[in-house]
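Subject: for your reference before the review

Hello V.,

The reviewers asked for a structural picture of the protein, and I figured it would be easier to keep everything in one thread rather than splitting it across files. Below is the amino acid sequence we used in the manuscript, unchanged from the supplementary table.
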Amino acid sequence: MNKNLANYIWFIVLGFCLMSLSKCMWRANHSEINKSDKEQFYKKLYLINVNDQNLFNDARIKGSINLAFNEIENKVKNLNKDFKTIVYCTDYACTESDRVAKVLKNLGFKNVLIYRGGIQEWYQLSLKDPKDYPFEGPATTKFLKRPIEKMDSDLNSNEIQIINAQDLSKLLKISANK
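And here is what came back from the structure prediction:
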């Protein structure tokens, strides 16, 4: 094989390896919540969906970011702790949003709220009024269409504030227009 051709191939392979390595390093350095335009749909407000990735992809309040419980500390370290932070999960029976909200409070977030109705209630409201309840995803999960069962929570109301769907809708409209 010609020595020049061998060097040329070696440089191409080296370049490819370096590009792959830099891409992996970029992903590692950006494992926090990415502050892209989509995720910053609302101004001075974080809307956090704590459902697993599959459910998040299927159904979410428009502008939500996904945050699993085991990722909290790594993903929120660069977020502004003064922003309103609203956490929600599947429905009134889900307690994952309570757990995440408590952790966020312990990490220093000053204005944490929980939307108890979750994606189930929001989805059903969006069917009646998509303008006031913006929704994203194909919504193929069956529980979304089941009757809503409101439940009391063990969460002390002095600990973390609860927000209902109507107030959340108003807050999101205000935040989107700022």
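For the response letter, the relevant points are probably these. Residues 33 and 79 are 8 Å apart (CA to CA). The chain has six helices and seven strands.

Happy to draft the paragraph if you're swamped.

O.
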